[in-house]
Amino acid sequence: MKETINGMTMEYDPSILSARIKRLMNSMLLNGNEFADYTGIPRSTLNRYLNERRVPKLSYIVKMAERCNVSIDWLLGYSKDQRREDQWGPEIEALVNKYALATEEDKKLVQYILGKYQLNP
Predict the structure, then answer these.
(1) Where do the domains of the chain lie?
(2) How many CB atoms lie within 10 A of CB 75?
(3) Which CATH class is domain 2-84?
(4) What's the rounded Cα separation, in Å, for the pair 59 and 116?
(5) Sequential pLDDT tens for the chain (121 residues)
(6) What contacts 51, CB < 8 A, 6 or more positions away?
(7) Residue 98 CB partners (closer than 8 Å, separation 6+)
(8) What are the beta bridge partners of residue 10?
């Protein structure tokens, strides 16, 4: 899908945005309604994004990226790196690298422990 804004044409794949939103919802343990409330995006609009039936407004993409602490490029599929440039310091980077090395069983244990620290929408 191509979108032209202010004379600039961009390629956009709605399936990537849908998959990335679902990934965020899953990692945050939020359903669609909770995610919509958390990000401030109307529920019907979020459903259209999830069902690949709407080109996102830039303002909603920015809201989602800021609220979920991810890069806009990652959200739209232009980058494989989920992090914003200013997101993590060395301590968090070290934790993420250690998590990446963990066994699936250990990852489940970490997720279980961190599950008690829910984000408040």
Answers:
(1) 2-84, 88-121
(2) 22
(3) mainly alpha
(4) 31
(5) 655 555 656 677 889 999 999 999 998 899 999 999 999 999 999 999 999 998 888 899 999 998 888 888 889 888 776 665 555 667 777 787 788 888 999 989 988 898 888 765 4
(6) 18
(7) none
(8) 3
